[in-house]
């Protein structure tokens, strides 16, 4: 498990910078595909991010867990929604997905605490 999912997102973003410079069309295409895939349609963005989290857990991708839990906090996902999503990921991915589901819980809790601290009055922190 990562020490900090916030730090992981920063590190991954920094580590991708050379790819943005070296293969800009590929990275732009990837970014555009992500925006199109998550855009509201028959499914809303939150539902799509929940799906992305489940796939990230099943694929055992720490970066995916970090970025999608961060997005889910911003989209107002509840802990119950995340847990049910992780239940499906565990069902589909077995024991290894259960281990990564625990990482997703830690990431969601970390970003939730950060979001709560960001909106709490300074005197309450």
From TrEMBL:
<dbReference type="InterPro" id="IPR029032">
    <property type="entry name" value="AhpD-like"/>
</dbReference>
<protein>
    <submittedName>
        <fullName>Carboxymuconolactone decarboxylase family protein</fullName>
    </submittedName>
</protein>
<dbReference type="InterPro" id="IPR003779">
    <property type="entry name" value="CMD-like"/>
</dbReference>
<feature type="domain" description="Carboxymuconolactone decarboxylase-like">
    <location>
        <begin position="24"/>
        <end position="106"/>
    </location>
</feature>
<dbReference type="InterPro" id="IPR004675">
    <property type="entry name" value="AhpD_core"/>
</dbReference>
<dbReference type="Pfam" id="PF02627">
    <property type="entry name" value="CMD"/>
</dbReference>
